[in-house]
Write a structure and sequence with these properties.
alpha/beta, about 10% strand, two-stranded antiparallel ribbon, 2 domains, homodimer, 7 helices, Dna Topoisomerase Vi A Subunit, Chain: A, domain 2, 4-stranded parallel β-sheet, Helicase, Ruva Protein, domain 3
Chain lengths: ~200, ~200
């Protein structure tokens, strides 16, 4: 699409670099901005610039943070001896949303993947070991995606922790709540039968 | 979703004010920005701020413009005696994309709509008449969406021009009745300009 304004063209181009935004959506956003409150455009623009400038990675758990240490690591009400190990920020956020976990997190930054050339040295495993040592962590919950790479990563970390007095668990794998058995894939259903849970009514 | 960073929360909130962007997409954009080149975030943020500050409305045709007069009105190669009257900027852009029209434009800013309470005085009709008078416009193409309101607007303007030596045409109705111009494909829209039909009220 041709734009008679260079500035519009430039802003449209900038928007289209974002994931999931094509030229038509970008134009729609730009036209919306042109009609919107000038204060809003200023607010949006500044927060984008500031975001990229100021957001830090928490030096303890690698969560995003406004300060050196994130609000979760700084929260003394959260159990320090239980760590939930996750792949990335999105998984951390998803678990936080459940409000079922009151311990702390450790973000690996991915999983070991020979196919994609990701080795253990590219993940935050060293800082995990150091944290376990320093803080006397007693329990680790591996909230890693149930894939071949995820399983490899869990196995690798559990080997490193062998001999230490730490309980390691993975999040329960099975049929999702409200899901229909007939639409569940064979591997999930098979595993959910193998790791069946004693029933207490 | 809970965010451990206030700045992330703020940017997500700002993004969700944009049309078609919900909290999940907004978070996706923010996470993308966090990983992206810092220069890119700066570029995007600045262009949003600058856009809202600097974009003007062309004082001749009401197109968006970097200057007082837009690049189309400033282009001496474009036929001054043929005006294409459109509802809005998106329609102008859609017609420009067909590369079938080499005259100039006039943006009405909408159509007469009794139901939505839009009267002729809210549209840029005065400036259209003035332009026609001043520049000796010989032909007017009504590229208005083929709806009841669109037809009313065409009728209203054609009545105002009665007695003047001006050819009035509408774009050919290759466009289906009730359809919106901006969603019409380029070929249909382009052909509808070439085979425009003399208008008889």
């Amino acid at each position: 699409m041709q734009h008679s304004s260079l500035l519009v063209q430039e802003t449209v181009n900038n928007f289209t670099e974002l994931p999931g935004i094509g030229p038509k959506s970008a134009l729609r956003l730009v036209l919306y901005l042109l009609k919107s409150d000038p204060e809003y455009a200023k607010k949006l623009g500044s927060s984008i610039i500031e975001l990229r400038d100021k957001i830090k990675s928490c030096k303890i758990c690698h969560n995003i943070s406004d300060d050196e240490v994130c609000s979760i690591c700084n929260d003394s009400r959260r159990e320090e001896h239980v760590l939930c190990v996750v792949e990335n920020l999105r998984d951390l956020m998803a678990i936080e949303d459940t409000r079922q976990f009151r311990g702390r997190y450790h973000i690996l930054g991915g999983v070991i993947s020979p196919i994609e050339g990701v080795g253990p040295e590219e993940l935050h495993i060293d800082s995990l070991l150091e944290r376990i040592e320093r803080n006397g962590v007693q329990e680790i919950i591996m909230a890693i995606s149930p894939t071949i790479d995820g399983d490899t990563t869990i196995f690798y970390i559990s080997k490193l922790l062998e001999g230490k007095e730490i309980t390691i668990s993975t999040i329960a794998r099975g049929v999702s709540f409200g899901g229909a058995l007939e639409y569940t894939d064979e591997i999930t259903l098979g595993r959910s039968i193998i790791s069946r849970i004693p029933y207490n009514s």
